[in-house]
Amino acid sequence: ARAAKLPIVIHCRPSENSENAWEDCLALIDQHWKSGGMGGVLHCFTGSWAHAKRALDMGFRISFAGNITFPKGEQIREAAKQAPLERMFIETDCPFLAPVPHRGKRNEPAFVLETARRIGQLRGLSLEKVGQQTSANFYEFFNLTERAENKVLHR
């Protein structure tokens, strides 16, 4: 990625017995990647606001998935409330982590609406605002010149 001058995408998911996964991940970013200035994405974020803040300070974006809707997802929700909307993505992590009310089912791209809706509720924003901004973030970050319509479709 460094040779191609591209950002990296990291999925850091601590195991049940690991409390240091986020510390280790962020230390590796700091030591081996931060100085390149290309940033990256913390995909399917599961950390705390403190972890998100450190990553944001190193030029990363935070991507939230369906686990933000889970009852035990309080620290993820806190990170979503605090992180700048302009540095945020939403995703499904298909076929895993289907959001409530679809939990336990195979995750589908259409379910990203539930993630966007939950972030909007947390921040006092409309679903449309969250969808428009996170879509714009995607196009800008990945330097895509062709833009699809940035509309969130309702079922």
Task: Characterise the protein shown here.
- The chain is an alpha/beta fold.
- It has one domain (39-155): Alpha-Beta Barrel (TIM Barrel), CATH 3.20.20.140.
- The protein is built from 5 helices and 4 strands, in the order E-H-E-H-E-H-E-H-H.
- Strands 1-2-3-4 form a 4-stranded parallel β-sheet.
- Strand 1 (8-10), helix 1 (21-32) and strand 2 form a beta-alpha-beta unit.
- Helix 2 runs parallel beside helix 3 (74-82) and helix 4 (112-123) packs across helix 5 (127-141).
- The longest helix is centred in the C-terminal third of the chain and has 15 residues, at 127-141.
- The radius of gyration is 15 Å and the shape is globular.
Layout of secondary structure:
Layout: E1 8-10, H1 21-32, E2 40-42, H2 49-57, E3 60-64, H3 74-82, E4 88-90, H4 112-123, H5 127-141
Parallel strand pairs: 1-2, 2-3, 3-4
Helix pairs in contact: 2-3, 4-5
